[in-house]
Structure of Transcriptional regulator:
Amino acid sequence: MATSQRRRTAGQVSGESIVIEAAWMYYHDGLNQTEIAKLLQVSRATVVNYLQEARERGYIRISLAPEVFTSHQLAEDLREKFGLQAAFVLPRGKGTEEEALMRVARGAADWLPSLLAPGDRLGVAWGRTIFEVAEAIEQTKISDVTVSQLVGSMATPYGFAAEVCSAHMAQNLGAKCINLHAPAVLSDPDLAARLRDEPIIKSQLDALGHCNKALFAAGSCEPDSHIVSSGLASRSDLDWYVKQGATGVLCGRFIDAEGQAIPGELDDRMIGITLDNLQGLEVGLLVSEGASKVAPMLSAIAGGCVTHVVTSNETARLMLETAN
């Protein structure tokens, strides 16, 4: 009998060690729960508990190869239709909108490290989706990667402010982090201009121009959009931009159906990346989910900011139907 399958009782292996041993037998040796129970001389229910504990302690990492999600027909259709480098399309499942968002965020977290290389400068936006991506990334280390915060700070009540998204992303990638130490929007355009000229802020903004890859989500122009609930824009700001033809929001900037920035008074008060710095990147990874995000996603793609997309099969079909 192989060494890994010799009978070892729970008395010989205990505590954390028995949890690890049960996990190894199950995931590496390919034994079933009944076989493990016999080898360890415990009940099958106890083995189930050991495996559950292993998952809860983070001992187990289960992932599917990215090619599973990038090479099927719907992903290929999305890539060809919109001239993308690749699309990562997941099954939406039968759950709630919240569960669908979490699936897409987890998919992006699984895919992102494979899109990065030593020396990359990754710009990270903000919002619920980006926060969940940052949280879901398994801790890794890619040498000489720098994460830059793309939008200034804001007093959001939701816990996914821009500085949190970039800091958590950098921590999980083992990367250097450049935060943008200024508010995302100020009350006075002259004050915003002076802040942008401050040496420290200016150097942080200059770093955004060196990003070769970026991670962002598309925001809607609906009344409950995060750009309003976060305080980045007022409802009157939103209404004005919609009248000017706004169909979406990208990194705090309102865009039209062609993905072009709509200049307005709000832009003069903002501190963050401008859309011209998002165009033509090696990787512009757009992560969004849901019917309300279809128009903003199509706008971002039309503007030349997007090279890669992560979304669900349901949203992907809506994108293709809307574009036809």
Summary: Residues 4 and 29 are 8 Å apart (CA to CA).
